[in-house]
Amino acid sequence: MPGVLPEGEPVPTDGSLPPTARRAVGARGFGVYVHVPFCASRCGYCDFNTYTASELGGGASRETYADTVLAELRLAARVLGDTPPPRVDTVFVGGGTPTLLPADDLARILDAVDRTWGLAADAEVTTEANPESVTPASLKTLRAAGYTRISLGMQSAAPGVLAVLDRTHSAGRATAAAVEARDAGFDHVNLDLIYGTPGERAEDFAASLDQVVAAGADHVSAYALIVEEGTRLAARMRRGELPYPSDDVAADRYLAAEAALDAAGFSWYEVSNWARTPQARCRHNLLYWAGGDWWGLGPGAHSHVGGVRWWNVKHPGGYAARLAAGESPGLAREVLTADEAHMEDVMLRLRLASGLPLTVLDPAGRAGADRARAAGLLDGAAYAQGRAVLTLRGRLLADAVVRDLLP
Description:
Elements: E1 9-10, H1 19-24, E2 30-36, H2 53-56, H3 62-80, E3 88-95, H4 103-117, E4 119-129, H5 136-145, E5 149-155, H6 159-164, H7 173-184, E6 188-195, H8 202-214, E7 219-224, H9 232-238, H10 247-263, E8 267-270, E9 273-275, H11 283-289, E10 293-297, E11 302-305, E12 308-312, H12 316-324, E13 330-335, H13 338-349, E14 356-357, H14 363-374, H15 380-384, E15 387-388, H16 392-396, H17 398-405
Parallel strand pairs: 2-3, 2-10, 3-4, 4-5, 5-6, 6-7
Antiparallel strand pairs: 1-13, 7-9, 8-9, 11-12, 12-13, 14-15
Helix pairs in contact: 3-4, 3-12, 4-5, 5-7, 8-10
């Protein structure tokens, strides 16, 4: 089941923000995230805020969901009022499975964002999709509506691995959908992979990488399997039906991904993300990693505007009820302190290939960076130019390096 939201101070009923936050909106770019919480079935590893039809209960439905999101968008416009963002640089529709909604509903949501705040002329507009939830016709409708990028949940090309993860699509469907997206005119196509699943062989992951490259995707995200408490996969492991993931195997898979993708012309730009060209990098995620602002629409969605972060109530029924009553769906919020903002800045920017300016570190953090460079975890040439950039070995130990820079 979905994980637990953090605690925080109450969000005002009208959703209002401190004047300092509204004055700063868009200083580092502005994006919109739309959460679509519906799935046809629940994958065994997933603890995202998603609901199948049997889990949904009353007060929410796919049929009325787009209208509910538009109600929150109208509230957001009132909150920002006379200090709207200069433009919307990126839109990302995630889930769940956004493409369980009719393509026309996704088009309506994007059109409303444009009419509310204005899309930049070169805006990046992404939707996530499960491979079995799109067709050539729906992809053409989305592209015509202004979606420029699609992110397909492939996870693996091995039928046995897909079965362990409780994925319902066939082994070849994800790459076929990638080709269909290209044919529909999408500028950029991402394929998501998960590695380290129990039972996955080295040759299974190699085949997945080969198929990603052959499908013509220009972006790949590859993440080690994380076993979240409360999921079916965690229960199976506790019962001894499956072994727990191996850190050594995960490291081997990561090195295999780097070697195969580098040979195919991809370059890493974030620890778990590779792109064929700079233009193929996910600008919406870069907005997050660079500390930009975004408004998150939908149940459980998180937002960040001018140093204030808040999150909506989780269940679609409660979300819809609050908006129907004219209230903000925000559950709680926090105002980041200078120390918290610094910590997040170091944690996120160090994961980027562009690295972290050494000038942002205090003396203790700089001493930690010196140790990391001496240990071969930070690139020496970049360090000499005043930046902390992870080496390949440093990427494998990125969390440890972050801890050393934040004593």
